[in-house]
# Entry
Amino acid sequence: MASISSQLEELYMSSSRKDMNDTLTDVILAACITPTLMSDRLLMEHVLLISVLHHTVGLEVGAHFLETVVQKFDQLYKAPEEGKECNNLVAVVAHLYNFQVVHSVLIFDILKMLVGTFAEKDIELVLFVLKTVGFALRKDDAMALKELISEAQRKANDLGCKFKDQTRVRFMLETMLALKNNDMRKIPGYDPEPVEKLRKLQRTLIHQSAGGSDVKLRVSLENVLAAEQVGRWWIVGSSWSGAPMIGDQGNESAKQTTTEGKFSSKVLDLARKQRMNTDVRRNIFCVIMTSEDYLDAFEKLIRMGLKDQQEREIVHVLMDCCLQEKSFNAFYAVLGEKFCSHNRRFQMTFQFSLWDKLKELSSLPSSSFNNLVNLVTRFLHKKCLSLSLLKTIEFGELDKPKVRFLRQVLTKLLKETEPKDLENIFGRISGIPKLGMLREGLKLFISHFLLKNAQSQAPADQAALLLERAQVATTAMEAKEAKLQL
# Structure
């Protein structure tokens, strides 16, 4: 497996990715999707190869394979044949979940669809999926599995009598009950060992090549089936010639993907001018631009259900919009505060994004520079972020843009903040050994760059106010150190 995957990686490096994805998918499906039921071990090994390439080459490998398999399953499910192609396709999707290519959301969507129809073939497929990944689903989302079992029991009570052979329905319910009670012994032929062995091999191959990063595709059945109409938002940076936000095709799934219905061509043109070059970034931008207020924007963005990298795009788009305004617009700051109070991971994303901006201070236009100063001051004032945000600045090697930035931020913060709030803001970095250099740097900067200039240039009352607030800030930074010495 190691040699096969490494050779395929080399082919991916030297050939067109689209051609490689198409060819690899065609070859594997030709080998695995036959009218007879395929060996589970053979299916697992083929899917393991896709999983390794998904992690090492890029998630578009697994995404393309998954989309092809699911759409083929949908076609065969709607036009059933005598063979076992559907079983093989469902097994492939289940093993894609086993080997960390796809999230449990898709598996639950397929199971809900099968339970909703509840024909004999559906029961067979439900049993097949549960036997393959049932206990993994229970571990991932016990509540969703419980709801599925309740729905299956209700369907069995309502429609079970129409089947000539009641045994299969009873067996399905018994299997579900065994899953619910976490009782592996009651599922005939259940053997997790082959999957576990291949998972260990997968971890070894991924760890060697890609550091084992989590790249599971959190995509629903509806998203995959409507990919041609609404775009492949789950592939970061994927290009698409359609326009899901215009929505004039009346497609329901398009409306869901673009959160709240359709956006005007004027807003879409503005998104393109602002270089919102992926579907996710465009959707976020259009939601922010068309919202009634910050709460409306927050609720719509949360309802988009973005995860991981896509969720972080909210912060990046928000920052871009804020800095590109001609003058500071507090709407972006208030919306940012709302996200920071909602979950700490947004605070971390804002911090990393601001660190990137601090590296680019010398190249920022004056309007963007002033907007950044106002945004950082506001975040510090509202305690969304701590002064530890400034720990990446080397106070011993300050250039002119950094001096100007720090002078403006600290002056605004000291003048516009009440003494009690200043104690809290500067006290947050007190007594933390790792921030010792930051505290010393801030104290030196305040005394050298702020107070000396203020005394010579500012009116007497302003200079006195700044001196008083600077003393409050300095005392707050030293407070916990003084207690420790005592």
About this structure: The radius of gyration is 29 Å.
